[in-house]
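Need tokens for this chain, all 212 residues.
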Amino acid sequence: MAAHDHPLFTRLYEVIADLGEHSQLGAARSEVLSGAYGRLLIVGLGPGHDLDHLPETVTSVVAVEPSDSMRAASLPRVEAARARGTEVELIDAVGEALPLPDDSVDCVLFAYVLCSVDSVEAVLAEARRVLHPGGSVCVLEHVRADAGTWTERMQRVVSIGGMWPRLAGGCRCTQDTRAALAGAGFHVEDLVERRLVNVPVVNWTLMGSSRP
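Here are the structure tokens for all 212 residues:
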């Protein structure tokens, strides 16, 4: 989908993600995915690094990614996952309109994607629709810092005039993802916030597992 494609950002993000695999971020991906099982939906596959952290309990993956350049960047990791025996279906689609039946996946992964979707509410509603009763949502999302902190003030400054979203592929660094999940009917009590990335405006990360 051309409207969601940012080729220059894709190249930059792939470098950042590669570096992250050798830092806390790689370990965080494994931690968040450790409880995933069955058929896993990945909303916003990006360059595909999450596929390198799938536990053996995940039997198949359906991944949606609306960016042509991101899908192209993910192909080596998609093929590697398939070679390891995991069925992976890669779909050109957005999280707001998932081309999947109701109650058709066991788990959903949101990893650094909710900040850049067109409608967080629509994406979360779609996740609830396709998630099997009793299923879980794995969360690894950078979030808005606490009000009044230096980081929160920096987030507001770089967001003036849409500067940060233009530089970062549509990312909104002031996204309150915990509140959005709670508003969509997900339990958020077990989600924790940690500093994972050395970029001040996106260093606070919400992570863990949630259920409707």
